[in-house]
TrEMBL record:
SUPFAM superfamilies: NAD(P)-binding Rossmann-fold domains. One of its GO terms (molecular function) is oxidoreductase activity. Keywords: Oxidoreductase. It comes from the Eukaryota. The keyword Chloroplast does not apply. Belongs to the short-chain dehydrogenases/reductases (SDR) family. InterPro entries: NAD(P)-bd_dom_sf (IPR036291), SDR_fam (IPR002347). This is Uncharacterized protein. Gene3D superfamilies: NAD(P)-binding Rossmann-like Domain (3.40.50.720). Pfam families: adh_short (PF00106). The keyword Cytoplasm does not apply. Transmembrane segments: none annotated.
Length: 165
């Protein structure tokens, strides 16, 4: 049975901090030595990851769908051996409904935590199906949150949007 240890090239979204950063750094240390593409928005943190021998790529998941598709197509063209995607990125806002809320924050959180996951899966599938036709395994891994199961009322949108699609 194929496993992530068989991956040749792994893309990790949200790799500039927290779980994503730890995942990217540890995946690069696998005995199989896969190429790891660490994505995020923070330039200085991406530069740090490059120093750790990862391929750091600026990739903003809050962009419109057309731009996201274009960015994903460019990534696949640059890394045709890409066979694993770990969708880890997330944004968490705390809302105080009595004080008022910014709807733009809700939209941003939903777009990054949910819509980008569904979109990137949709955009990567044709590439992964081609790999499958060649007998190569591919993997799609989504990172969720315990808050999807036990919600916090201060973060209702985050809790709902981190549920596995």
């Amino acid at each position: 049975m194929p496993s992530i240890d068989d991956s040749k090239c792994i893309l990790v979204t949200g790799a500039t901090s927290g779980i994503g950063r730890a995942l990217a750094l540890n995946l690069a240390r696998l005995p199989s030595r896969p190429k790891v593409i660490a994505t995020g928005r923070r330039k200085e943190r991406l530069e740090e990851l490059e120093k750790a021998d990862l391929h750091a790529v600026s990739f903003d998941l809050s962009v419109n769908l057309e731009t996201m598709k274009k960015n994903m197509d460019e990534l696949i063209a640059h890394f045709p051996e890409l066979d694993t995607i770990i969708l880890n990125a997330g944004i968490q806002h705390i809302f105080h409904f009595k004080k008022g809320i910014e709807l733009s924050s809700i939209v941003e959180e939903f777009n990054v935590n949910y819509l980008s996951v569904v979109s990137l899966i949709t955009y990567i599938l044709p590439h992964f199906l081609k790999l499958s036709e060649q007998g190569r395994p591919s993997f799609i891994i989504t990172v969720t949150s315990g808050l999807a199961i036990v919600p916090n009322p201060m973060m209702p949108n985050y809790c709902a949007s981190k549920e596995d699609p």
